[in-house]
Amino acid sequence: MSGSTYGKLFTVTTWGESHGKGIGVVVDGCPAGLELNEADIQRYLDRRKPGQSRYTTQRSEADAVQILSGVFEGKTTGTPISLVVFNTDQRSHDYGELATCYRPGHADYTFDAKYGFRDYRGGGRSSGRETIGRVAAGAIAAKLLATLGIDIHAYATAIGPVTIDRNAFDLAESLNNPLGMPDAAAATAAQEYLELCLKNQDSCGGIIECTINGMPAGIGDPVFDKLDANLAKSMLSIGSIKGFEIGDGFAAATSTGSTNNDAFILTDGSITKATNHAGGTLGGISDGSPVVFRVAVKPTPSISQPQQTVNCSGEAIELSIKGRHDPIIVPRAIVVVECMAAITTLDLLLTNMSAKLEHLKQIYDR
Amino acid sequence: MSGSTYGKLFTVTTWGESHGKGIGVVVDGCPAGLELNEADIQRYLDRRKPGQSRYTTQRSEADAVQILSGVFEGKTTGTPISLVVFNTDQRSHDYGELATCYRPGHADYTFDAKYGFRDYRGGGRSSGRETIGRVAAGAIAAKLLATLGIDIHAYATAIGPVTIDRNAFDLAESLNNPLGMPDAAAATAAQEYLELCLKNQDSCGGIIECTINGMPAGIGDPVFDKLDANLAKSMLSIGSIKGFEIGDGFAAATSTGSTNNDAFILTDGSITKATNHAGGTLGGISDGSPVVFRVAVKPTPSISQPQQTVNCSGEAIELSIKGRHDPIIVPRAIVVVECMAAITTLDLLLTNMSAKLEHLKQIYDR
Amino acid sequence: MSGSTYGKLFTVTTWGESHGKGIGVVVDGCPAGLELNEADIQRYLDRRKPGQSRYTTQRSEADAVQILSGVFEGKTTGTPISLVVFNTDQRSHDYGELATCYRPGHADYTFDAKYGFRDYRGGGRSSGRETIGRVAAGAIAAKLLATLGIDIHAYATAIGPVTIDRNAFDLAESLNNPLGMPDAAAATAAQEYLELCLKNQDSCGGIIECTINGMPAGIGDPVFDKLDANLAKSMLSIGSIKGFEIGDGFAAATSTGSTNNDAFILTDGSITKATNHAGGTLGGISDGSPVVFRVAVKPTPSISQPQQTVNCSGEAIELSIKGRHDPIIVPRAIVVVECMAAITTLDLLLTNMSAKLEHLKQIYDR
Amino acid sequence: MSGSTYGKLFTVTTWGESHGKGIGVVVDGCPAGLELNEADIQRYLDRRKPGQSRYTTQRSEADAVQILSGVFEGKTTGTPISLVVFNTDQRSHDYGELATCYRPGHADYTFDAKYGFRDYRGGGRSSGRETIGRVAAGAIAAKLLATLGIDIHAYATAIGPVTIDRNAFDLAESLNNPLGMPDAAAATAAQEYLELCLKNQDSCGGIIECTINGMPAGIGDPVFDKLDANLAKSMLSIGSIKGFEIGDGFAAATSTGSTNNDAFILTDGSITKATNHAGGTLGGISDGSPVVFRVAVKPTPSISQPQQTVNCSGEAIELSIKGRHDPIIVPRAIVVVECMAAITTLDLLLTNMSAKLEHLKQIYDR
Questions:
Q1: Which of B104-108, B123-127, C286-290, D55-59 has the lowest mean pLDDT?
Q2: Residue ranges of E strands in A68-201
Q3: How far is the first Cα of chain B from the last one, in angstroms, to the nearest whole number?
């Protein structure tokens, strides 16, 4: 694996640049027999499509996905599923300054440092369009998990300084407003704040929370491949994400053991927890409670106000970024978070199948 | 890889249970020619050794490491380095209730859910003693990195509610006080807070920050194996860590693009950044600034006050945990954070060697 | 990795079915800065293209490759190179019996056993067309290796009972005759034998030899990732290959130590070997001599004479296979062998870069 | 993974040098619940122990294995199983010439080329003693496979020019004679041939065959991780093995399709094959027939007659190797072949668990 592949058994290999011929993904290790068609995947891609509100880039791409392999007569065959979205809106223009300058907050400089040069068109491999492959793969993982009773939902809990009221939490509402907040009043306030940002030629960040319901206890490996460790990696692998916390997260650092410990209790004869400070994982293994984690999203680095920077020739310059950019990354990143969580969860579910000799006997019983 | 191995080229495989025969690690992929002896490793292990202050468990183990392979005539040979610490203080006693109850905040229940049963002695594989292997491996990575001019330091920035004063920051001080805080006054206040916790038969958490100095620009892969993604995984893979943030982290979520972007500037003709909100990484690749990240550590779950819980037979019980436990995990986790950071950094440095054709030509030039 | 990905640093992920939309490959980990265009790849694909002689299937496909990502301004960028060949000659017909019967010597039955069902069109994933992805990826590896002075050539040393005369060995000739034999007389005799096979509605096998020239000493890992072990895997992963041997191979089993040992000698002050019974590898690591190995190719299983077999309903049937099939696999497999050897060699060359601390110092020297 | 780890889910990491402190292995990913004790492993190690006949080295080591982790109350816990054999017979002597010369047929020169220097004591990491780790791990895999009805047996079919008579094949006999041949008459003839070799201060090679009985159909991945490809890699990863063939192997190259194809037939209502030219695998996936493969073993390179070679200073020298060496590697390699086959088979069995959605539903059914 060389950096564009994720997962041990359910492996996802993304490829493609923002302004190249297309963006795609190869999903290997999907169990055979899952009903799947392009609409299942398009539904997820449509959630990250640009141009859906005035807070997302106005680039208009249909982002229509094609399944090129791995599905036969409506079902996955167990062989690699190749998915592609051809780019259709690559404006052929002069990249001029962007080809030679190092935009603050972007990967231009670091790509040059690593590879010696870069595809400077629209961010190249570092563009948000790379997430198309993740979302397409995640849609498959999510569909498979749903057949096992596992559902994943992400939503924004903060946009800039505006945070949701937990007492007003309404998951359905998060699909109604353009910011994905599960609280209509907060969404309104956040839109006001965003208008201010736009007026200031500025951008802002936010926080996305994700909940995995229906997770069976016992998933995740106890040492390096902890459920939370793998989720953390998959989240920080999304561009612009600067932090990850599970359960009470950073707040646990100021808590005490007597408060932070979740007592085990019996509910209808089953073992459950009285609280969920842990966020659904103990020792890196799921405990049967919902898995709850949050990620911090930085403000969009592309802003139209003038910025000081340096070009490839090592000269100080002033830069004003033109073009179509999201003033906030959060709304379109929500489905990416959900999809990376689905991929991570499914991969651990598959590796967990061999945890017990008893499981082998179930499957290879003759 | 099955969960106890970490790394692609510099791979670390830990093994061992708290009360088994020993704890160890196999380090594979260490470049040949590094001078190494047991003292290099012992120095790091001594920093995580129990019994160093009244805030760490009183279990007294020398934790003396032996190098069993991979070093010849004082230098690494390029073959696996096997390191072992034999357990010497496994008290042979009746684990009684602990064998059958599910301690809140511990992995007892989740191990049973995953594997069907567990080694219940002292936390088994989930014990903090598993980190001996990580520290031993990390000591090697750190020594190698130092030869390339890369230094890694971790320290506590918060213990419970007590946080350091950034203006009083003194790295050397962090090695002077038992809590690893780079601020003597904060360390004193934190000790007062800990006395209160002890009196209340309670425990507390904290925050550890880690800085990687001397990191060349260009390290880390742009998609799934981002420098920050791999650091996040390695950190969350440490027991009791509930959150990770890089640079401004969660604070970036409330910032704006114009503030959060770090301007590129020229310093003595070299490209640097005016600020470091990013924490040393752009697009997942190091940018030449110091890499700075923080982790949240939860309060020790083993507390001596009575707790409600459930046993393996599904009966509600009251539990009082006896024995030797740290009232706070932070001080001994500092070196673990440092070591996991070293392992992660070195692994990415090795995989980065093949980023450019030019590098191949340098090495295979004939 | 889930079975369709090969390689640790230079990773190759193939996808696609014989009669699906296309066949492709994602190459990740190719160093940045290699000049590459579609013609470089097409040249190799043309060598495995069907319809080139009366001994290869008459299916006529241009097999035109497209580079979808990873190349910018004529050079590799270090990011994934996605390559696709769209299928154009999928005859839309009734697969009838082939959809439900288990062809002898084919993977129909085993796919059903593993996955529960299969894409029965033209062999699906098990078709020889899967090798398009390998050849496309191998063309890149071969081009890169050539820039380092490493050249790989494969050719047929036997077709059915006809073997080449080592004294008449002429590498150039192997590109002149349709069977890829480096001996014109043997090629003529082999063609006579093949005519007999065709007349008998039968097929035959053969042996392919591959030589890697210019391999530096020191490549390959000493334990599981031996150069010869990785070559063996990559060769046996090609459909229809039933055996692998390096150097004297099976003949070494009847030799003696005094004969089989290759004496080290000095040639112009450099250490070389007087003979090459070892085939260029000692202890799994290249020794500076040419790497020489052979593979055994089984006869094409699709023959038109009637065969006894069983169908999916568990009924005995008689089967006569119609359609376009190669009477011998060898000629088109030659380039596949060459390409898998190139991929394997390059991958080991990349992982070898971190073998010595000295190499790190060369690259990270500041 | 850096060359000393093998396997995707059942992973085996070996460490140790011939004359270092010990040899060991960490087995990760062994399913929990397998009954296991040291005797289970010792039984296999005793089969590769030196000093068992006049045809194996006279070095006398008990090679007593210790389980250091991963087993609790007599059963595997699912966590890493660390096994160690401490070296006890490292004669402390002057390695003199061996420290500086390059023995023909050995890895001395290639280690120096790769790493810059080497542990020259007794072959270091390249010693046959490295296989202790493989055998210890394979003993666990074999025990687990046996609980699923899968049995693996290896034996010698040729020693130098002496081959077994297939009509006299008697598996039990292979455990009776010191050469592991399943034919008493051949074993006697082979011993005569070996006496001649000893008299000539020479050595010889041979062929080992391995049969896996009880293998369910459907195991192995169709592309790179074919059952036969993984077996080939695991076999060529054993020192001194120069060739691998499955089923008819190299003989298939001279066969015809009509002969080589195995007809599917019905046996008691089940689908089986009339013949087994394929050796139990079709398209890389097991077909329910016994898996049968052979490996070629080269003659022991350490012979006592004088040989020409070169030393580290680049001077031509004459070398006479003293010390304890096997005149033939085959007898002790048999159990290594068996164990690597067990490891490979179990690993593919575990990864196969997620091949079908139906399997997931069986295990995660609630």
A1: D55-59
A2: 71-72, 75-76, 81-86, 101-102, 151-159, 162-163
A3: 36
C199 token code pair: 């007349």
What tokens were used for A45? 């891609």
Report the gap between the CA of A86 and the closest CA in chain B (Å).
Answer: 20
Q: How far is the C-alpha of C212 from the C-alpha of C227, rounded, in Å?
A: 12
| Minimal C-alpha gap between B356 and chain C (Å) | 5
Report the alpha-carbon angle B49-B52-B53, nearest 5. Answer: 140
Please state, in angstroms and rounded to a whole number, the distance separating the CA atoms of residues C127 and D1.
31
Tens-digit pLDDT profile for residues A208-258: 999 999 999 999 999 999 999 999 999 999 999 999 999 999 999 999 999
Report the predicted TM-score, pTM, of the whole model to 2 decimal places.
Answer: 0.97
Of residues D230, D246, D283, nearest to C106 (C-beta): D283
- The answer to whether B236 contacts A236, with C-beta atoms less than 8 Å apart, is no
* Per-residue pLDDT, D92: 56
Please report, as a single letter, which amino acid is at residue A148.
L
Residue range C69-115, pLDDT digits in tens: 999 999 999 999 999 999 986 665 667 778 889 999 999 999 999 99
Indicate whether C1 pLDDT > 70.
Answer: no
Contact, C113 vs A364, CB < 8 A?
no
Angle at C260 (CA atoms; ends C258, C266), nearest 5 degrees:
85
Mutate to test the interface with C, among A15, A86, A108, A351 (most CBs of C within 10 A): A15
- Taking CA atoms, C191 is separated from A272, B164, C153, C197, C199, in Å, by 74, 84, 22, 10, 12
Q: What is the mean pLDDT of residues D305-314?
A: 93
pLDDT band at C57 (very low <50, low <70, confident <90, very high): low
**What is the average pLDDT across B272-286?**
98
Q: Which two tokens stand for residue C220?
A: 């390959």
Axis crossing angle, helix D357-364 with helix A330-352, rounded to the nearest 10: 80
* Sign for the pseudo-dihedral over CA of A315, A318, A322, A325: positive
Contacts of B among chains (3+ CB pairs under 8 A): A, C, D
Using CB atoms, pick whichever of A2, A9, A116 lies closest to residue C32.
A116
Which ipTM did the prediction report?
0.97
Q: How far apart are CA B273 and CA B265, in angstroms?
A: 5
pLDDT class of A91 with cuts at 50, 70, 90: low
Our CA-based measurement puts residue C179 at a distance from the nearest CA of chain D, in whole angstroms, of 14
* Predicted confidence (pLDDT) per residue in D174-193, tens digit: 999 999 999 999 999 999 99
Mean of pLDDT values over B61-74: 94
Instruction: Tell the residue number behind the tokens 């309670």, with chain if given.
Output: B202
Of the two residues D89 and B98, the one the predictor is more confident about is B98
What's at A29, amino acid-wise?
G
Name the β-bridge partners of D245.
Answer: C243, D294
- β strands within chain C, DSSP E: 5-6, 11-16, 22-28, 65-67, 71-72, 75-76, 81-86, 101-102, 151-159, 162-163, 206-213, 241-246, 264-267, 270-273, 281-282, 285-286, 291-297, 307-311, 316-319
Instruction: Write the DSSP string, D208-273.
Output: EEEEEESPPTT-S-SSTT-HHHHHHHHHHTSTTEEEEEETTGGGGGGSBHHHHSPPEEEETTEEEE
Distance set, CA C127 to CA C99, C123, C132, D23 (Å):
14, 5, 10, 44
Half-sphere exposure of D182 (CA within 13 A, CB side): 19
pLDDT score at A95:
73
Distance CA D214, CA B202 (A): 57
pLDDT at B194: 95
If you count them, how many residues does chain A have? 366
Mean pLDDT, chain B, whole residue set:
94
Under an 8 A CB cutoff, do D354 and A31 touch?
yes
C203 sits in the region (left: phi over 0; alpha: psi -120 to 50; else beta) called: beta
